[in-house]
Amino acid sequence: MGVLNLTPDSFSDGGQHLDPDRALAAALKMAAQGADLIDLGAQSTRPGAQQLGSEAELARLLPVLQRLGAAKARGAFPQAPLLSVDTFHAPVAAAALGAGVDWVNDVSGGQADPAMLPLVAESGCPYVLTHSRGNSTTMDQLAHYGDVVAEVIDELQERTSQALAAGVRASQLLWDPGLGFAKTTAQNLLLMQGLAVLAAQGFPLLLGPSRKRFIGAVLGEPRPRARLWGTAATVCQAVAAGAAVVRVHDVAAMVQTCRMADALWPRP
């Protein structure tokens, strides 16, 4: 899954794809590099980010989706990869699904908008249910765990039960343990080391370690774009532990990393 941020304030690529034509060019490049999915986000979810309303989010997102749809219609954009929308607002997800998006990636795990889970149930689309606590302004104060792996599993199971009660089918769900969302560096590393336990819970795992600050902390590297090799190590760990999807910024390099890791740790 390639990351396409349509934001001015994302932690590593803010402002690069605000122009819809540049965003379309970036999506075309990711497709050519081998992305299976492209995740479009118009709201930064980094710690400390300002939260937008649905209208402002849609003002950034819809022009890009319109260009992608037009490019597909004239054969200038391949039918694959699939498209995903990174949002916790149900009106944004609904508009995106209506504009041809295939997946919903909700960093709130259905907590931010009570209309999200019924919408996902009605649409039948794949839904990435992410573990997080609080929001972008409060998450860093909520990183308190006794056993981070066990507690993340418990909280994901609780949110899964809420999704199923809302009519979402189990087959629609992917779990994301939320690396960087209300987690310290040490807790992120423990989650990475415990991925096999998470994968054993029965839901496909999506991991989003790309360029994140815990990698920077381990490497002593303050520049997010310079964390490529640290990201590659986490992607190898994700593949070895059985993750189904990795969400990354550097698509070409991580496609190669995944292919090599798949050869080293083949799936049963």
Could you walk me through the main structural features you see in this protein, from its secondary elements to its overall organization?
By secondary structure, the chain is α/β, with parallel strands linked by helices. It has one domain (2-207): TIM Barrel, CATH 3.20.20. 44% of the residues lie in helices and 11% in strands. The strands form 2 sheets. It has a 6-stranded parallel β-sheet with strand order 1-2-3-4-5-6, covered by helices on one side. Strand 3 (82-86), helix 3 and strand 4 (103-106) form a beta-alpha-beta unit. The longest helix has 20 residues, at 54-73. The two termini are 22 Å apart. The mean pLDDT is 93.
Brief synopsis:
The chain is built from 10 helices and 8 strands.
Q: How many distinct beta strands? A: 8
Which blocks of ≥5 consecutive residues have pLDDT under 50? none
- Portion of residues in helices? 40-55%
Shape: globular
Instruction: Give the C-alpha Rg.
Output: 17 Å
Biggest sheet: strands, sense, closure?
6 strands, parallel
The strand order across the widest sheet is: 1-2-3-4-5-6
CATH architecture: Alpha-Beta Barrel
Number of domains: 1
Which fold does the CATH topology refer to? TIM Barrel
User: What is the percentage of strand-forming residues?
Assistant: 5-15%
SS content category: alpha/beta
For this structure, what is the CATH homologous superfamily?
A: Dihydropteroate synthase-like
CATH class label: Alpha Beta
Tell me the span between the first and last alpha carbons. Answer: 22 Å
In quaternary terms, these chains amount to single chain
How do the helices and strands follow one another from N- to C-terminus?
A: EHEHEHEHEHEHHEHHEH
Arithmetic mean of pLDDT: 93
Please report the number of helical segments.
10
